[in-house]
Protein 1
Amino acid sequence: MEALQKKAQELLTTCRANVVIGYGQGSDDKPRAIFVTDPAGADKLIFNDTCKQNLGVYLMKAEVKKLGKMGIFATKPVMRTVVLLASENQLTDIDVTVIGVNEDGSLVDFENLQALENHVKTITFEPDPADKAKIEAIEKMTVEERWAYWQDQLSKCFKCYACRSACPMCYCSRCTVECNQPQWIPVPSHHLGNFEWHMMRAMHLVGRCIECGECGRACPLDLPVHLLTQKMAADARKDFGWQAGMSLKLENPLSSFKPDDKESFIK
Amino acid sequence: MSFRNLMDFMGIDTRRVYFSWVSAAEGAKWAEVVNNVNKEIQKLGPYEAYQKLAWAGVE
């Protein structure tokens, strides 16, 4: 933790960052994101096992961006987030300095995004085993059971859009759901509207979800919305051999064409 | 492919969803696709699960 605070101080004093994004102490012993702009405030930074939130989401927020160059303490999911955002031309070396935080708390200072990409390629990422098991259980259900399961879960949704706000990949300043001429997605949170919203959100994350599970954690009703995007990520791995956030080159399966893409059901 | 998988995962009856690539110049193919869809859907009958969803949760 001391090394982390020192690093933040160093970034701020050497102007490698104007704002450092990290975890600080929140209420109820829970960590929260903090934004350190003054080297003297670096001692507020903490890091422990409970620091799970994907901080990458703040890299896309205008309020943080305007503070200047961002430094971020990146756990494994955040590293992939940064690589994915960079591949989509949302971040460059001018915008961000990444300090990797390993599971044991040791730090890796990445000189630039290329160094980050090289590092990301050497580590393995496994989706959460509990979530993987849940997805497999749903896959084993009959189509009627799946329909009933998702209706039961999604009918509770009241469209607070916390899943969208918590996701670093949902960075459009104007979302389709706020577009009302024409209105693609119904505004009321009736069952059909909820179904459409969650389907659209999952579709927009195909090949982009890095399986951090933040959407599910952000949900105030604990709906398993992250299973939808993680299922899409698992399919992208299976069908296209694609893992999001591993390369600075934009090769997302849905935005690139390859002659050997499968299309067995299109007649 | 992903969209079809997602619909299936959410419990939508994918037997009722058809994907086809038809050029504007392929009138005969278009007729064939529509006739085929019509025939298959008639066999399945009305999609009652979806009809129920459309009105569920509406006061």
Note: Chain B has a mean pLDDT of 90.
Protein 2
Amino acid sequence: MATHPKTHALSIWDPHIVRRASIDALRKLHPRTMARNPVMFVVEIGSVLATWRLAQGILSGSGHVGFELQITGWLWLTVLFANFAEAMAEGRGKAQADTLRRARTETVANREGADGMLEQVPAPGLRKGDVVRVTAGEVIPVDGEIIEGVASVDESAITGESAPVIRESGGDRSAVTGGTRVLSDWIRVRITANPGETFLDRMISLVEGAARQKTPNEIALNILLAGLTIVFLIAVITLQPFAVYSGAPQSLFVLISLLVCLIPTTIGGLLSAIGIAGMDRLVQHNVLAMSGRAVEAAGDVHTLLLDKTGTITLGNRQASDFLPLPGVSQARLAEAALLASLPDETPEGRSIVSLARETYRAQGPRFAEGDMTFVPFTAQTRMSGVDLRLAAAVGHGGSTTTLVPSRAIRKGAADAIDRWVRAQEGQVPAQLAPIVERVARAGGTPLVVAEGAEPLGVIHLKDIVKSGMRERFAHLRAMGIKTVMITGDNPLTAAAIASEAGVDDFLAQATPEDKMTLIKREQAEGKLVAMTGDGTNDAPALAQADVGVAMNTGTQAAKEAGNMVDLDSNPTKLIEIVEIGKQLLITRGALTTFSIANDLAKYFAIIPAMFVVAFPHLQALNIMRLQTPESAILSAVIFNALIIIALVPLALRGVKYRPAGAAALLRRNLLVYGLGGILFPFLGIKAIDLIVAALGLA
Amino acid sequence: MTLNGWLQILFFLATVALVTRPLGAYMARVFNGEPTWLAPVVRPCERLVFRLTGVDEQHEMRWTEYAVSLLLFSIVSMLVLYAMQRLQAFLPWNPQHFPAVAPDLAFNTAASFTTNTNWQAYSGESTMSYFTQMAGLAYHNFVSAAVGLAVAIAFVRGIAARERGTIGNFWVDLVRGTLYILLPIAIVGALFLVSQGVVQNLRAYDTVHTVEGAVQTIAQGPVASQEAIKQFGTNGGGFFNANSAHPFENPTPLSNWFAMFAIFAIPSALTYTLGRMTGSQRHGWAVWAAMAFLFVAGVTTAYWAEARGNPLLTSAGADQTVSALSSGGNMEGKEVRFGIANTALFATVTTDASCGAVNGWHDSFTALGGLVPLANIQLSEVVFGGVGAGMYGVLVYIILAVFIAGLMVGRTPEYLGKKIQAFEVQMAMLTVLVFSLVILAFTAVSSVTTHGTAGIFNAGPHGLSELLYAYSSAAGNNGSAFGGLSANTLWFNTTLGLTMLIGRFFMLIPPLAIAGSLSRKKLVPESSGTFPVTTPLFSGLLVGVIVIVGALTFFPALSLGPVVEHFLMQSGQVF
């Protein structure tokens, strides 16, 4: 997961994207496109009216052409800047899509005919249900499921991960993606997607924004913005009769300027860019969301279900201690454990060997291969071990075992060893159970070691909690999110690991049904639940969860049940997904607040400017001391246009997000975007006014 | 401004704060259908009403049924009142033999009392018979307040409900609000007012000869019984034209305090009811704090502006300073009995709430002093507000505040566990929109047509304020008049009547729709990620949203009215 050769490094102002966005900004002036955004549509209509009146004025030689020309120009720029913001966001997506398209090379597939013969078919000719054969060096033509064979596959075109992955039939790793390359062996694949519906196609349309639908919060926000726009339309239209009554009728340019400054153009212009950029940020994290709705839901999540293994703990457990029974020396236990584990190639086995060698200096004897018989782990016996034929050669100095002609050493779960010992008519000492329980209570896995009919002690296998998880769970708690660890361990072990990792709750000895019940229970309490999963038996829970993130390595069923796919197959990513969801909502809220708060300063710029000629005493309201009425109005309009461009990076990057409780977030954001939104335009408009005056523009 | 004045203002606020909890808790019990200490007396009456009208107490209504019931009730009540005015010459208790009320005035008055506005384009003592006053107007004083109360409670129920979809039963809420709350409180209030010297009789008017030898008619009537509900129900319609400046309506300093206390009592207590019924008492107090803050801001401005007096009079040599024998400040249009502090306070209270009773003439306030009542109304009267109307009004603002700022905590905005989504925002914006539209559009038309300008008494910005105030007052269902406007014309009676109806029903149906929608929703459990609605920060946010939404909408109009008038006065020009 270290390297993503994709678009991470795209700077905000990448010249290629800027160039393309500038052209798109013009193209988006089409009224049909504009009408989707009521706020900016009103600005466009205002610009058209102003242009028409300007033309009239120029033709008739009347009016105040210099001022009117500048106002009209800045009105158009306001619309263009908003279009540009949206085009920039889309452009970044398009740049990613282009990279992806390169992966969608046209290939020829070997399709199995009805008679089992292979025929050559171009990839777009494949349909769902077809079976193709792919051998080493070939590209998998379309998404599918392996029905036979095992192969290593290079998925770097999709995930950016260069290390090959194993894909095999059966199991939870049977899905393959079109555009990836088989590196070794051969597989038979049943096609699961028609042309145009593949993963890659979906990914391309997602990042391009083509498939983008407005999310629920975005719709609600649009209603608020449209409502505010109408309110200001009423306020400005009725202002003219009041002005006429007061003997100070206003020109169309001034009224349109006031309107455009008051309606929430800042957020109106950036809203869709924020949404597109949010999806884009997910894609940069190598997560594909099937809908914007899912991203928003991620921000709302109350409960995260996290699998213990691989998410909270490192995938493998490690031996941390040897706990002998009374009367057994630690060295003897270590030696037995070492012998039993020498042939064990699992990470657990290797960790036992290294612990025994390093800590207890137990020296394994140098037997010839024939001297040892390895007894591998099976699901039935649930233990593994070794049988030695030359017992006398063991040089540990012990007293009892030298009398035994051969040695049989076993390690395994307590109940399995128990059964084994009893089968040889041995006794299990009463002291064993407390040791086993102590290990389990500490979150470890107890492995009991026995030699012949004599139990020797317990190996403490410890789950290693990934570093930094505790802090992340604390952050989540501060955000009001509960974390639940899902594990197949017994409750004692689970409780210990849960407390070490700092999760809020755990579900021990969990079956897929338990998981489902937990999700439904949380949802019945009104909570939103997020989880990750990869297996086919995770699919129902993934579908039930509000945010279900399927691992890309998982089965097709899991991928279809979830509403997001993590291409890196990193379950910890769920936490980042939640943060991205929250950041998206915060960015919208912050810019809305900022936009509305801006209006105060604009009133103080424009209202006195409108009426100061009829009522010179209104100069007292000109608290920014703007130079002339024209310069005041022009400065407000320029500020209103420039702030859109100035905030494009913020909209694309999202506001800075620090995990914290709602109260702290609200306090900080209200201070920055609310209070800041009130004060900043006073400075901005004043500064522009100084420049306008210095350049003699008004 | 004097220490004495401030102490009176603080005393008033303290008494309002004190009544909030007991009355609020009592109302919560009443509307939850729990037993109360009045039940032994009231419950039989209530049961009788339900039996006679065939109302099923257990029937729960969706918001649509609730709204339709409410509308039907209001329409029928309004038609009855219209007919009563038109036929008063043939009805009893008309010792002065007043003729039928003119059609446009009768429409205006019927709309006015049905909508809890009590805008009076007439003088009560020279237009309305005792029968019309008692059976027509007083009836509406009770039921229009009860309707407002019902909507507020229905809204609160919608917030508190868990996936129910229903918001209570309109008829039950109407009857309970009237029988358990308004009637008892009005009876006690009336007795108190009688003790202060408010008249209560059905006599013909007295004719007396003054010491100067002139003949004076002294109007009489069942004033005390009307007066109590006029304040408690935030109705505000005076028995006499002089309203609460009249010595028979408001004879003593104590009755003056009582009038203001009565205006704020129920609206203030409703914040406690909100907290109680939603299970978040601290939220109720946070809302109360926001309201109290806006109240103090208003009264401070008004008191300061009035106590400061008129600089032109000062420069003309008039003494406007406070002394043992003079209240100082701008005394034009004020009762000497009440003085600056109590008139500024009364004007603030009556416009914070949608009452509209007055004990002084807002038209004669200084420009900034007069701006306070006008702005209060334009904030749509949510500073405690009208009975019920203030609560559902502020809930709409809360929804907007929670939605705008709620996104900033990174969650779909939630209010007390209910998600605020497109429908709620739509309905909330609808009320904001209709309110500003109806005020600004009618004022705009009136300001440039002779229908409107003919009624204006003062020229210039002050005339614009008169128009703006009239339509604001009508839309906000306040009913107080700025004064100076001759409003008993066909144009004003009709447009103001329409404004009142729109301002009432378009402001009351969307909240019901929100309540219905919230009622259906799941309750999202609280966590540290939940938007906080119990903190001072929330109160501050609410104040900000109320002020900004109000200010942004009306600032341009106000700048050509009171604001410019203020600056002109500073330079010696008055209107």
Note: Chain A touches chain B through 74 residues (CB under 8 Å).
